[in-house]
Specification:
Length: 274
């Protein structure tokens, strides 16, 4: 129940149905007094309308900000949450990684977000769908446009981070700070811009764990969330998993994008999105 959140009233309804099946003569009337809208399990699972509204607001901030520097920040915040939601990674300062650890062709991302006790390698591989692949590419296209937009009045050292991202030498997402330098997006930036969200940083893992469990084999879900057994990680020599097993998680990711009505930044123009 660590990742799941279920209303107590729903649990009791299932309990009553079970009693009716195995002992129809039993009185279940007394259970009514225990029914409650309070949830049992994880308290970090926001409901679907909340998540839809949250991503709508993030999207709106990107599309309607006339300041190109604030737009960069909002765009990075939006893409960070999209990456977190689709990959189900744990939040860390090194996520998402630089381009050298993102395989856009095979749609795999190498992340180091868990303690490695049994494996000789550092990190694990997370599959992602076409939507995230495309959005990463659109973000890179935007960074190139941002360079051309600002080269007339920003010195080279202040935009050096963009060149390093494009060369695969720096983490993917960038942030324009108060010192007028472009640097990597940090977890503290996310917390500052999302102060109204009274949830832990990993709320996306709790939400997607519940969502993906409706469409994916439990062993696959455990692998995606880094809860797999020793030597059962994707690509481990002793693992029974095959890369094709992860097609179902990509299909679930597609359903998630559709359910949350996530829009694409494909029509980004640099300052505003039309």
């Amino acid at each position: 129940m660590f990742y799941f959140s279920t209303k107590i009233i729903d649990i009791l309804d299932i309990y009553i149905q079970t009693l009716d099946l195995v002992g129809p003569q039993l009185d279940t009337g007394y259970i009514e007094e225990f029914k409650s809208p309070i949830t049992f399990g994880s308290q970090q699972v926001p409901d679907l309308p909340f998540v839809q509204s949250f991503f709508y607001q993030l999207d709106h901030q990107v599309r309607n900000n006339p300041n190109p520097f604030q737009t960069l920040n909002h765009y990075s915040l939006w893409l960070w949450h999209v990456c977190m939601l689709i990959t189900s990674a744990r939040p860390s300062e090194s996520f998402p990684p630089n381009l050298d650890y993102i395989d856009l062709d095979n749609q795999l991302m190498a992340v180091a977000d868990k303690e490695q006790r049994y494996s000789g390698t550092i990190g694990r591989y997370l599959p992602f769908n076409d939507y995230l692949r495309d959005e990463i590419q659109y973000y890179l296209k935007y960074l190139k446009h941002f360079l051309s937009l600002t080269k007339a009045y920003l010195p080279q050292e202040k935009v050096q981070a963009i060149h390093e991202v494009l060369d695969g030498k720096r983490l993917l997402l960038l942030f324009y700070d108060s010192k007028e330098y472009i640097r990597n997006l940090e977890l503290s930036d996310i917390q500052k811009y999302c102060t109204e969200i009274a949830l832990q940083r990993n709320w996306t893992r709790h939400f997607t764990r519940y969502f993906f469990a409706q469409y994916c084999n439990e062993d696959v879900v455990k692998g995606i969330f880094g809860h797999d057994e020793a030597m059962q990680e994707l690509f481990d020599r002793y693992s029974a998993f095959q890369t094709t097993d992860y097609d179902q998680i990509r299909a679930a990711q597609d359903k998630l994008v559709k359910t949350l009505v996530l829009k694409s930044m494909s029509n980004f123009t640099g300052i505003m999105i039309t």
